[in-house]
Amino acid sequence: MNLTYYGQSCFSVEVNGKKLLFDPFITYNPLAKDIDKKEIKADYIFLSHGHTDHFADAFELAQQTGAVCVAAAEVADWLGNKGIEKVHPLNHGGPVSFDFGKVRAVNAIHSSSFPDGSYAGNPLGFVFTTSEGDFYYSGDTALTMDMQLIPRWAKLKFAVLPIGGNFTMDVTDAIAASDFINCNNIVGVHYNTFDLIKIDKEKAVEEFKAAGKNLLLPAIGDTIEV
């Protein structure tokens, strides 16, 4: 599978001929100024919660791509009420089948609200099981014991975890999370976009390496094989 990073927690994964886009936040991210949104393709847009830095470009890119938006019921309803016809609401529970594989919504310890402050449902992570391999996107979350359930459902090739701290896990907690989920191949997100989540990238990579793990930090716009 190939993963393309667009900054903050926005990335896409190609799996079984489908393009999955996650938490689009490009327009208001100065670090992503060289990304041309018009070139972004998506068959599905997964939204972990309603905060602006995960949601800002969701409506525009859903219109542009015609993608199915997959999110908590409240987020899906919000998009539907704005005129997005292709939505799939879900919540914590059993896996949901799509044409590329199965998706299970899992717990994320965070908050979720729309830009106007209204309730945006539960924050979510997503576990993907596919014929090309399994992967996990945690969304914004603290370290939680619930992550220990994930190996019951999937044998992960890689996981996408926040590492910036302050609002989410930091590097140390992300290393612990990789133990919980039984996955040593981690793509780090949600760091360096603004001062409160700035990290030392080289130090983070070394800390993962010392723990026997691989931390991937692709540059914005780069595509890597995972």
Task: List the keywords.
single chain, 226 residues, alpha/beta, Metallo-beta-lactamase, Chain A, seven-stranded mixed sheet, 6 helices, UPF0173 metal-dependent hydrolase SAMN05444277_1087, hydrolase activity, hydrolase, UPF0173_UPF0282_UlaG_hydrolase
What does the model show?
With about 230 residues, this protein is α/β, with parallel strands linked by helices. It starts with a strand and ends with a strand. Helices cover about 20% and strands about 30% of the residues. Strand 10, helix 4 and strand 11 form a beta-alpha-beta unit. The chain has one domain: 4-Layer Sandwich (Metallo-beta-lactamase, Chain A), CATH 3.60.15. The chain contains 6 helices and 14 strands. The protein has a 7-stranded mixed β-sheet with strand order 6-5-4-3-2-1-14, covered by helices on one side. Keywords: Hydrolase. Belongs to the UPF0173 family. Pfam families: Lactamase_B_2.
Draw up the topology in text:
Blueprint: E1 2-7, E2 10-15, E3 18-22, E4 44-46, H1 52-55, H2 58-65, E5 68-72, H3 73-81, E6 87-90, E7 96-98, E8 101-107, E9 124-129, E10 134-137, H4 150-153, E11 156-162, H5 171-180, E12 185-189, H6 201-210, E13 214-216, E14 223-225
Parallel strand pairs: 3-4, 4-5, 5-6, 10-11, 11-12, 12-13
Antiparallel strand pairs: 1-2, 1-14, 2-3, 7-8, 8-9, 9-10
Number of helices: 6
What composes the largest sheet? 7 strands, mixed
Strand content: 25-35%
Q: What structural category arises from helix and sheet content?
A: alpha/beta
What's the total number of strands?
14
Please tell me how large the radius of gyration is.
16 Å
**What is the rounded distance between the termini?**
6 Å
* Helix and strand sequence: EEEEHHEHEEEEEHEHEHEE
CATH topology: Metallo-beta-lactamase, Chain A
Q: CATH first level: which class?
A: Alpha Beta
Portion in helices: 10-25%
Low-confidence sequence ranges = none
| Coarse morphology | globular
| Strand adjacency order, main sheet | 6-5-4-3-2-1-14
